[in-house]
Design brief:
CATH class of the largest domain: Alpha Beta
Number of domains: 2
Radius of gyration: 17 Å
Shape: globular
Largest sheet: 4 strands, antiparallel
Distance between the termini: 40 Å
Helix content: 40-55%
């Protein structure tokens, strides 16, 4: 098995150790493999978005008052049927969007949200 070296900030190391402990894994390497498998499964799910999709997009972000999300919602307005915004603790926000439309647009929207780097949680639940 190849050995690689990566750099992580303290929060990421803490999160990695938390994964290791919570799942009772043997070590950090096994936790990284688990995280890669989870991300791969999520990417595969994104690839399955073809044709018309319907469901709920759930997002938690910490950029209260940042205009980027409003811009994203307007750019993909044809698939965002309704949206709920709620303030959470520590200036975090919860967004719940009812989605109905082209799966390719949803995939583009989710990639744009991920690439902004301010989203702490993003999940699409199909109907």
């Amino acid at each position: 098995m190849p050995v690689i070296s990566i750099s992580l900030d303290e929060d990421s190391v803490g999160a990695l150790d938390g994964i290791t402990d919570a799942l009772e894994l043997k070590g950090r390497s096994e936790s990284v493999r688990f995280a890669i498998k989870s991300a791969t499964a999520e990417l595969k799910e994104l690839d399955d978005f073809s044709g018309t999709v319907e469901g709920v997009l759930i997002m938690v972000h910490g950029s209260h008052g940042d205009a980027w999300l409003t811009q994203v919602q307007h750019r993909y307005g044809e698939i965002v049927k309704t949206q709920l915004h709620s303030h959470l603790q520590d200036r975090n926000c919860l967004e719940v969007m009812i989605i109905s439309g082209d799966g390719g647009l949803l995939k583009d929207m989710m990639r744009e949200i991920h690439s902004a780097g301010t989203c702490r949680y993003l999940k699409f639940v199909r109907s």
